[in-house]
Amino acid sequence: MRPNRRWWTVAAAAVALPILLTGCGASIPVLQPKGPVGHEELKLIIFPLILMTCVALIVFAIFAYVMIKYRARPENADYVPPETDGSSLLETIWTVIPVLIVVAIAIPTVIVTFRLQKPPTTSTAPAKTVSETPAAASMAAKTKQKPLVIYVASAEWKWLFSYPQLGIETVNYLYIPAGQPVDFQLTAIGPMNSFWIPALGGMEMDMPGEDLGLWLQADQPGKYLGRSAQYSGSGFAHMTFNVYAKTPAEFYNWAANIKAHAPQLTTAKYESLLKPGQVGTMAFSGDINPNNYNGSKDMTGMPGIASGMPIPGTVSPSSNTSSSSMSGMSMSGDNSSGSMGGKNQ
Amino acid sequence: MHFANTFLMWKEGPLIWISDVLIALASLGILFVLWKFKKFKWLWTEWLTTVDHKKIGIMYIIAALLMLFRGGVDALLMRSQLAFPNEHFLTAQHYDEIFTTHGTIMILFMAMPFIIGMMNVAVPLMIGARDVAFPYLNAISFWLFFFGAMLFNLSFVFGGSPDGGWTSYPPYVENLFDPGPGENYYIMGLQIAGIGTIATGVNFLVTILKMRAPGMTLMKMPMFVWSVLITSALIVFAFPALTVVLGQLLIDRLFNAHFFTTTGGGMPMNYVNEFWIWGHPEVYIVILPAFGIFSEVVSTFASKRLFGYSAMVASMVAITFLGFGVWVHHFFTMGAGAAVNSFFGISTMAIAIPTGVKVFNWLSTMWKGRIRFTLPMLWTSAFIPCFVLGGGVTGVMLAVAPADYQFHNSYFLIAHFHYTLIGGTVFGMMAGLYYWWPKMFGFKLDEKRGRWAYWWFVIGFNVCFLPQFLLGLMGMTRRMYTYPSGLGWWIPNFISTIGGFMMGVGFLLIVYQIVWSIRYGERDVTGDPWDARTLEWSLPSPAPEYNFARTPIVHSRDEWWYIKQGKYKQEFVESEIQPIHMPKNSGRPFLLGLCMFVAGFGFVFEWYVFVILGLLGVLAIMLRRSFEFDYYHYIPVSEIVQTEKSLGRL
């Protein structure tokens, strides 16, 4: 029973695990980002990992050497270890080197931290595969040369998305144009959540009374999984949504289609959506009216409105379409709308 | 029937029924054994009323091990649930309660008492003192912790457990989203135990600063004493923040205030800030004493002086200051802005520098030593690689703010802090437990059985938490009660569950080892079974009530080592044994804890009769104490001489 034996266990596990998993075809979205933000962040995962692993390997090597060489054995029973108090030279060396490593990591950290506050600049617009309908073209004109803004609000336990420039809302799924930066504006109605699409880049919290921003961009069309990374009660594990990155033409065709065919979101429908529970995917059309909704009597204590920030799906009470199904849309049911246990129900 | 359904939770299913039965059986069993062996009086006079730091320390450690069991069972329930995708062994609500109690218990009712237990057992002996500065307060600290922990644990079978996570962020934990007594249990359990902890911090700060034996300057203190001094300072400055934030949350919940809701001008971020102003130093409160223990263990079992003592002290002081300046790294993704995130990212990375210095100094201490692989040394040798990997490498990675946007609240983070808290704190406490066990009880724990436990636990630990780094990168977040198939998550989760159960086996083997060793363990007749270096080993095992018959005069660090080497002769302040002034036992600390428990219970259910009765009891006990003048006694010389003779010391 030598202490270095567990080394082999650790090393074997470390090597075997990724191999095992890649063998199963599993994806590791954080390590395989599909957008410029995720790529920036990946660089800052790999770089410190390499630097720190070098340090760790040195420590492990010294540690293994010491453990083996200087262990007590019957042969060295009469060995008397020397009296040493310390060594200014050595201690200075292993203070200065970590300082240099920290500086080396700190510089890119600061640069990227500031850069991620701004929209990604690399634009890799995918090739057109379909042509835009006239309605779509007029919508596209509204956001041309501008980032697409999407308001995100979490409620117990669903995601409400609103496209203020386009006048449409979705619940529990997102369409975004590939190659275009997306400006997510996050808030919460009720408890905090955290908006996370690992394949596109990092997360940001959404909090009641706050309006936090997150820039993300998809380079290529694809389907990515998003979820909440902040616990918010018993339905939290099911707070997932799919993100469909499409070519701009496909995206605006989709948006025009929603605008034309999806039902209007009424205040009553909106308030029923805010009640704790899970729902499936939905889409609505409607005009954003930033200072319309201020929380109903049922939902006191749940205001999700930061000053000046519109809430998704706020419409004039005159429209009274009660249907909420996405008839005509070719959406797969991504979230089961099954009931779930929880004391709030 | 309504009462039973609401409070005894009879509808909640078999887990609760089994627990009810087990608790009833265990309680009856304990009462029966006490009655059978007529030990009630012994329990009361020897333990419940004691003000002896050694016994209080032992009680802390026993409580910590019991809580390790409870928190461990919680962990295994969670790991069982996550072993396969789409599993519904636990409901979401039940799972939420379990991870909440697991986290809270492990940090506050396992790690904290374990550390405070070690402090109590070792510190006065190491500095040549007869007790802590305030023995009566020390007993109060223990009973406040104990009853706080009991109140928290009661939630499982009476009224419902908290389900807001151990960080308990509003607004989720406010009444609107989280009604019921669960969160009140969290608040009151932590509040009562926290008050006790603050008192412990004050107590040890004063003990170490004022009660060292003559000659022991600050820079001659053993490294563990230094770590406790720093920890006590951290406690005194950090815990009041917890007291305040829990008080605010309680007022929010009981009296509908709006400290942390957005209605009425409240702000949830205030909670998050206040919580982590306590919470981040808390991380160092639980790791620094472990560093101290490793320092003692390494120099003892390598038979070498600690390398770079003053650098070690400087590192710990640096960590203390940095520890208070980095709390924002717990919420990089809460919109603090680039400048703030940069500042806190860099200050967090900077902690790696003093920590690195400590690691290299431990390695240098072992360099050219003669390392004996006893159990304390084995746990220390497991600590170094685990901590370097889990604390150093991944800690710096998490400090990189943009990268943290991908790690935050994911299993990567879970793996990281379990590597530091288990690989650092738990391994450290195990090392300390084995190291000081002979001093506490007069016999050694069996090495062979201990090695079995060690391998099961340490290998299981790595099998459990290494895959979780990967799970985080795959997008799995913490506190998910279930996950769908097809994401590639189940293999790492399954491996992790196997590791968790291996740790469970390790724990059972430790219990077996202790039970076995009580009967057959090697008795320590020398008082110095490890050929160690510091003053506590100059005493018989276990040390007598008064610790030192005569107060030693200290000449250097590693005093006892040099006395054994013949470099100095042991000197004492008193030339002859004199009567020793000691505090009297008292039942009031126990009763005070009980009254706090009653008051806390009243707050939990808003039954204010209990609150008033409990607080009146607390007040009465404090008043009684203020008018007490006959609280000490002298141990006569004849008795000391007799005790010392029976221990072979005269």
UniProtKB/TrEMBL annotation, chain A:
<keyword id="KW-0472">Membrane</keyword>
<keyword id="KW-0560">Oxidoreductase</keyword>
<feature type="compositionally biased region" description="Low complexity">
    <location>
        <begin position="316"/>
        <end position="338"/>
    </location>
</feature>
<feature type="transmembrane region" description="Helical">
    <location>
        <begin position="45"/>
        <end position="68"/>
    </location>
</feature>
<dbReference type="InterPro" id="IPR045187">
    <property type="entry name" value="CcO_II"/>
</dbReference>
<dbReference type="InterPro" id="IPR034227">
    <property type="entry name" value="CuRO_UO_II"/>
</dbReference>
<dbReference type="InterPro" id="IPR036257">
    <property type="entry name" value="Cyt_c_oxidase_su2_TM_sf"/>
</dbReference>
<dbReference type="InterPro" id="IPR011759">
    <property type="entry name" value="Cyt_c_oxidase_su2_TM_dom"/>
</dbReference>
<dbReference type="InterPro" id="IPR002429">
    <property type="entry name" value="CcO_II-like_C"/>
</dbReference>
<keyword id="KW-0813">Transport</keyword>
<keyword id="KW-1003">Cell membrane</keyword>
<feature type="domain" description="Cytochrome oxidase subunit II copper A binding">
    <location>
        <begin position="145"/>
        <end position="257"/>
    </location>
</feature>
<feature type="region of interest" description="Disordered">
    <location>
        <begin position="308"/>
        <end position="345"/>
    </location>
</feature>
<feature type="transmembrane region" description="Helical">
    <location>
        <begin position="89"/>
        <end position="114"/>
    </location>
</feature>
<protein>
    <submittedName>
        <fullName>Cytochrome aa3-600 menaquinol oxidase subunit 2</fullName>
    </submittedName>
</protein>
<dbReference type="Pfam" id="PF02790">
    <property type="entry name" value="COX2_TM"/>
</dbReference>
<feature type="domain" description="Cytochrome oxidase subunit II transmembrane region profile">
    <location>
        <begin position="22"/>
        <end position="120"/>
    </location>
</feature>
<keyword id="KW-0732">Signal</keyword>
<keyword id="KW-1133">Transmembrane helix</keyword>
<dbReference type="InterPro" id="IPR008972">
    <property type="entry name" value="Cupredoxin"/>
</dbReference>
<keyword id="KW-0812">Transmembrane</keyword>
<comment type="similarity">
    <text>Belongs to the cytochrome c oxidase subunit 2 family.</text>
</comment>
<keyword id="KW-0679">Respiratory chain</keyword>
<keyword id="KW-0249">Electron transport</keyword>
